[in-house]
Write a structure and sequence with these properties.
Largest sheet: 6 strands, antiparallel
Order of helices and strands: EEEEHHEEHHEEHHHHHEEEEEHEEEEEEE
Number of domains: 3
Distance between the termini: 47 Å
Strand content: 15-25%
CATH architecture of the largest domain: Orthogonal Bundle
Number of strands: 20
Number of helices: 10
Structural class: alpha+beta
Strand order of the largest sheet: 1-2-3-4-6-5
Length: 506
C-alpha cells in the first residue's frame, strides 16, 4: 500500500540517462516495493522509477522494450484518442539502467487515486493512501474500513467498471493480455467513477512473449489454475492470455458491484488441505455461487460475519439487481464460460452492457444513490426497499436498418427529472467511447417533471418529430411523455424511434 510521503532530507539524488537519451532524476530512497520491483520517486514528483530486483532474461528485456516503445506508440498516439488512453493506463514510458538493475519510468498516479477527505480520526484508511481496488472488493473491507464518503454510489461504481472494461478492450485490440488483472493491479476512484490499469510491464504478447506470472489467486481463470503446477514447457499447461483476462474482468466487475467473490461459496472441496481446497475452488471445481440450477456452492448465510452483511449474502443482494444486461453477462462468464473460455464475454461486450445499464438507473435517497429498474410494474430500490412513487416513463428504442422498417433493439432508457439525452441515445451509429466527438458529447435534450407531466425538451435535435401527433418539434419546444407516444429522434441512417411506456409506482 503506497502512502505519499516526501522524501527524507538525507536522500541523495540519482541522475541517469534513459535508453531514449533523456535524463531521469530520482531520490535514492525506496518508497514502495512490489513482488519483483522497488519504487523510487522522481525529484519533480511527476513520475516514479521502478527497478527490478533480479536480473532479467534476454526475452524479458525484449518484451519490456516492445511494451515501452512499439506498443506504447501504437496505443498512445499524439491525437486526442491516444491522450484519452493515458488516463486509463499507468504505462511505462522509458527504460533506464542503474548499474545492473533495469528500471522503468512510469507516470505518477493521478491524485484522484489517493484517499483524500478522510476524517483524520478515522482508525483505518488515511489520507494519502493509494486507492487499491482491494479496499472496494469485499464486504468485510468496505463495511468496516472504508469511510462512507469514500464508497461512491452504484452509478459511480458502474462508471468505474466501464473504464476498466474499456481499457481492457483497447489492450486486447492491440493483441495484448494483462495476465494479472486483479484488484491489486487496478487503481479505483469510486467517488468519481474512475479507474486506472497498473503493472503494465508484465503484459503478455501471445505466441511471442509468455507471461511473467499466472495471476492473482481468485482472479486466475479455472483452466490456468487447474494446470498451474505443470512445468512451463508442458504442452498441457494453460497460460494467461486474452481469454483468461476476460475471466478476471468478469470477477473484477462482480466484486466491485456486489462486494463478494463469485466463486467463494459454502462448499468445502478439501477438508484437510487449504491450498488444495483453493486450487479446486478456483480451478477444476469452480462453480458460480449463484448458479440457478446447481446449489452445491451456495453461500451459507449462517456462516457469514455480520460485518459482511448484507452484500455477502446473495439472497439479500442477488446479482440480478445489476439489471438484465449485466445479469446476462454474468451468466455467460460464470455459467456458460467458466470452464469454456470461448464463451466468455469480451471486454467490448462488457463495455456495451455497462453503458446500457447506466441508462436503466433510477435515483434513490439511500446511500447507494441509484438502482437499476428491474422491469417490475412496481419498482423498488433493491438496496433500501423504498418503492418508487408516481409515474415512471420508459423509452423503448427502435431503429430502422436499410429497409426502413423499425425493429426493437432490446434497449431502453429510464427517465428521471433533469436527465440528459445525448446523441448516442438518438442514433445507434454513435457510440459513447474514446472516439466520441466533442460535438456528440453535448446534450441534445433533457427530461423534466413539469406541472404534473413528464416532458422532453428539444435542445439540439433539428429533426425531432412527435410521430403520434404528426408534428415536428423545433429546438426549444417540448414533447409530452404519454403512454404509447412515438418519438422520432433522427430520420437519418441509424436514427432511433422511441416508444413511451409509463409504469406507475406506489
Amino acid at each position: 500500500m503506497l502512502i505519499v510521503n516526501p522524501p527524507t532530507t538525507m536522500a541523495n539524488i540519482v541522475t541517469l540517462t534513459a535508453t531514449d537519451g533523456s535524463s531521469v532524476e530520482f531520490y535514492d530512497e525506496i518508497k514502495a516495493s512490489g513482488g519483483v520491483k522497488d519504487v523510487y520517486f522522481s525529484t519533480d514528483g511527476t513520475y516514479v522509477v521502478a527497478f527490478y530486483r533480479k536480473a532479467l532474461s534476454p526475452n524479458d528485456r525484449q518484451r519490456i522494450d516492445d511494451i515501452v516503445n512499439t506498443h506504447r506508440q501504437l496505443i498512445f498516439t499524439t491525437d486526442e484518442v491516444g491522450k484519452y488512453w493515458t488516463t486509463l493506463f499507468a504505462w511505462p514510458t522509458k527504460i533506464v539502467m542503474w548499474g545492473e538493475k533495469v528500471g522503468l519510468v512510469m507516470p505518477f498516479y493521478d491524485k484522484k487515486f489517493f484517499f483524500s477527505g478522510v476524517d483524520p480520526t478515522w482508525r483505518y484508511i488515511k489520507n494519502g493512501q493509494e486507492k487499491n481496488g482491494k479496499w472496494f472488493s469485499a464486504a468485510k473491507l468496505v463495511n468496516r474500513y472504508v469511510p462512507a464518503n469514500q464508497k461512491g454510489t452504484f452509478l459511480t461504481r458502474l462508471r468505474m467498471c466501464l473504464q476498466i472494461a474499456r481499457a481492457m478492450r483497447r489492450l486486447h485490440a492491440a493483441g495484448l493480455a494483462h495476465s494479472d488483472l486483479s484488484y491489486n493491479n487496478v487503481l479505483v476512484d469510486p467517488v468519481g467513477g474512475n479507474a486506472c490499469i497498473i503493472d503494465c510491464d508484465g503484459l503478455v504478447v501471445p505466441k511471442k512473449f509468455p507471461p511473467e506470472v499466472v495471476g492473482t489467486p481468485g482472479f486466475i481463470a479455472p483452466e490456468v489454475m487447474a494446470t498451474r503446477n505443470l512445468h512451463l514447457g508442458d504442452p498441457k499447461k494453460n497460460l494467461p492470455q486474452i481469454s483468461t483476462d476476460r475471466h478476471a474482468l468478469a470477477v473484477l466487475i462482480y466484486t466491485f458491484l456486489l462486494n463478494r467473490h463469485p466463486l467463494n461459496g459454502g462448499k468445502v472441496w478439501d477438508l484437510d488441505d487449504i491450498q488444495r481446497d483453493d486450487d479446486l475452488r478456483y480451478g477444476e471445481k469452480a462453480l458460480f455461487i449463484e448458479h440457478p440450477t446447481d446449489a452445491t456452492n451456495r453461500v451459507k448465510p449462517a456462516q457469514l460475519d455480520p460485518r459482511e452483511l448484507p452484500q455477502a449474502d446473495p439472497q439479500q443482494r442477488p446479482y440480478t439487481l445489476c439489471g438484465p444486461y449485466l445479469t446476462k453477462m454474468f451468466n455467460r462468464a460464470f455459467i456458460d464460460g467458466l470452464h469454456n473460455p470461448g464463451l466468455r464475454p469480451s471486454a467490448g461486450e462488457w463495455e456495451e452492457a455497462l453503458v446500457k445499464t447506466c441508462d436503466l438507473l433510477q435515483p434513490c435517497s439511500c446511500e447507494h444513490g441509484w438502482y437499476v429498474f428491474d422491469n417490475k410494474t412496481k419498482p423498488v430500490c433493491p438496496f433500501c426497499g423504498k418503492p418508487y412513487v408516481g409515474q415512471l416513463p420508459i423509452l423503448n428504442f427502435y431503429y430502422a436498418p436499410s429497409h426502413g422498417k423499425y425493429i426493437s433493439e432490446n434497449y431502453r432508457m429510464m427517465v428521471y427529472h433533469r436527465q440528459t439525452l445525448y446523441r448516442w441515445h438518438t442514433n445507434n451509429l454513435i457510440v459513447p467511447n474514446e472516439k466520441t466527438s466533442a460535438e456528440d458529447k453535448l446534450p441534445v435534450g433533457d427530461f423534466h417533471f413539469h406541472n404534473g407531466q413528464w416532458i422532453l425538451i428539444n435542445r439540439r435535435l433539428p429533426g425531432l418529430r412527435d410521430v403520434t401527433a404528426g408534428r415536428d418539434i423545433p429546438v426549444g419546444a417540448f414533447i409530452p411523455l404519454t403512454e404509447g407516444r412515438q418519438i422520432l429522434f433522427d430520420s437519418s441512417q441509424g436514427g432511433r424511434l422511441a416508444v413511451v411506456q409509463l409504469v406507475h409506482g406506489a
